[in-house]
Amino acid sequence: MRIPFGGSCPAGSVSFVTFCTLPPDASWKQIFVSPLRESVLPSASLTFNFVMVRRGRTLIHLFVLCPAILPALNLLHDLLGRLPPDLNLDFKFDLCWILIPHARSLSGFYIYTKAAAQDSGEQARLDAVKATAPPTGACVRFWYHMHGSRMGKLTVYTGDEKGGLGPSRWSKKGDSGDYWQEASINIYPGSEFQITFVGECRASYGNDIAIDDIVVLERQCSSYASFSDLKCDFDSKSFCAYNNSQNDDFDWILNRGSTYTGVSGPDVDHSKGDSTGFYIYIKAMLQNPGDQARLDAVKATAPATGACVKFWYHMYGSGMGTLMVYTGDGKGGLGPSRWSKSGDSGNVWHEASINIGYGLDFQISFVGECGRNAGSEIAVDDIIVLEGQCNNKATFSDLECNFDFNAFCAYKNHPYNEFDWHLHSGPISGPDTGPEADRTTGDPSGFFIYSKVSRYMQGDQARLDGVKATAPATGACVRFWYYMYGGDEGTLTVYTGDGSGGLGPSRWSRKGDSGDYWHEAWINIYPGSDFQITFVGEGSWGYSCDVAIDDIIVLERECDSTVPLSDLNCDFEPGTFCAYKNSQNDDFDWILNSVV
């Protein structure tokens, strides 16, 4: 009895449809010549389900079961137990993958999960027979279709050495558009594997997951990832298009909530901001200082406009190590580091971005390096790759910082400092030279940053760099509060270089004791100029001087107060007019010139 597509069949009947050529020795096929009936089944017509039987990779039979209720399922299961042992049976009591005509051809077939008939969270699992990859490795390719406003999730596994599913190798969640898309997974050379597709439902009509055209090649996948493949928030409980390297000391792991130690790492992910969201991190416990965990993405190619890699990182802990990001050409080597961060960055998530050159092949690699103890758990979340170069210039709101979120905001310690700026709340330990409270709240619970310049030699520097920004046509005003109290002569200097690497000329500076209270200072930024705020604390040879900063703000106008005399100094070397501008009430203008 052949069941037409989209129809139903009489209650209690079990039939089969043969659509592949049977092998000559298939005498057992006579088992299912006649329909089976159960008198206990209801008389109403119900939707049918399917069961597939295969010999190796060859699909032999399609069984149609009507209705899909337990007595008939048990009966069919008993009969199928008499099949030869070399046949692989895809048969699930909770939810079946269903064969129907392919959209590209009414005579073709694909499989899909019927979400409307299931509860949210129910899964359909499709297992392949086990196989072994050759020394050249293998490539699993398949096409998937996931279209719907409440689409579920498709996850692919390739098994582990214990016979379990192992970690997810590929996952997709949500609407991917009303068309077929290709995906591929590399299988490591010589490894045993078992392909498993798991479709997870969100109970909603018209949100079915479909698969077609599965093929396994005896070589590694050669296709490059799309930028959508490289996007990953890890909330699908998978590494997406990222894989732990075989050439490192230990691995990145998926996690949600607090880390194992509880004294380092995040408490929540960045995507959701709560303990249900997932992120990846390195578990530093039981590792040695300097041990590295490397995570490699699938190769990709930047378009002619270039590309921008954005991600969020969390580096909080007393023994914090280093996070490095590489964008090698995917031929094996990492290439030079494109981004690096060391030390404690506070118990908050920070965003970072890296430009990819125009038309270049690239492979993103995250390398986490353990610090001096278990308090060096580094986390990463929300990786995304965009077409076009990154906009690495900050808005003025980005540059505003009162440090009360226990974070440096858009400011960071320079990697080649002799010593650093530190976040702090309350009195500073040691000689009574630092503030008792922050400037924002006037309370010991408020945060500020400070540099203990009295502990270092004259000439030693602690440099804090802001993100680059551009002043509007009206100019800009940088305001901040500073605290310098103590008998020794430490120095605080502020620069507003153009962000190309050099500090440029000093724009503001103070040396020595300024009294036991907070002072306000301001610096004008020239109209239309690029700038990067840099605070530099310099050592004093003594033991009684701390420099503190709080409440940095940048306004889209020039400062109200009269400029300090140092602002009037100008040698025009930065290629700007400094504090000078051409008048609107004259006949023509002064112009910048160079003898080069």
UniProtKB/TrEMBL annotation:
One protein family per Pfam: MAM
Give TM regions.
none
A single GO CC term for this protein reads:
membrane
Q: Where is the MAM domain?
A: 102-223, 230-392, 399-561, 568-596
- Name of this protein: MAM and LDL-receptor class A domain-containing protein 1-like
**Species of the source:** Acanthaster planci (Crown-of-thorns starfish)
Could you tell me the gene encoding this protein? LOC110990279
